[in-house]
Amino acid sequence: MEAKIKEQITAVFTNYLEANRCRKTTERYTILDTICDMKGRFTLEELGEQLAAKNFIVSRATLYNTMRLLLSLRLVVKFILPTGTWYEVGYKNGNHCYQVCTVCNKIDELRPTSVATAIDNMRLKRFRKDGFVAYIYGVCTSCQTKMKRRVRQLELKKG
Questions:
Q1: pTM
Q2: CA-to-CA dists, residue 51 to 27, 40, 154, angstroms
Q3: Is residue 146 packed enough to be buried (19+ CB in 10 Å), middle (13-18) or exposed (0-12)?
């Protein structure tokens, strides 16, 4: 992640902690720094492993409470996918669209500009949009091909 964006994220976090008279602990900042260094989506277990690799052990409660705080500030975004719960740095990264194969659980992120435009143009009553997550479920081409092969093999055995 770019140093400038990392500084902005840290500044938002610090301003929130100061404004709400929360403690600015080493644990909170180390968790935030580790998250910023991670590439792409991650699980809480992977985050814990990264912290342990830095020889920085935090309690599960501290990890969960800090994540809850980062989620409420939208510095981190939570995704609930068929493969589990994933997190990602969410600063200026609000829109996501995924295609999910219901057979092999393969997940690909899409950049659908038409969907984003439609949602951006949507007028909602008494609601400010920050971003969206859309899941498109179906069967990927690899799984479709495998399924067709199996059907043909079964037809040949019967025939």
A1: 0.69
A2: 10, 16, 51
A3: middle
In this structure, are residues 130 and 74 in contact, taking their beta carbons and an 8 Å threshold? yes
Q: What is the pLDDT of residues 102-137, one digit of tens each?
A: 888 888 888 878 888 888 888 889 988 777 778 888
CA distance 16 to 136: 35
Report the amino acid identity of residue 11: A
What are the CA-CA distances from residue 39 to residues 35, 55, 88, 94, 117 (Å)? 8, 20, 8, 16, 27
Q: Identify the residue whose tokens are 């498109």.
A: 136
Spatial separation of the C-alpha atoms in residues 70 and 36, rounded to whole Å: 12
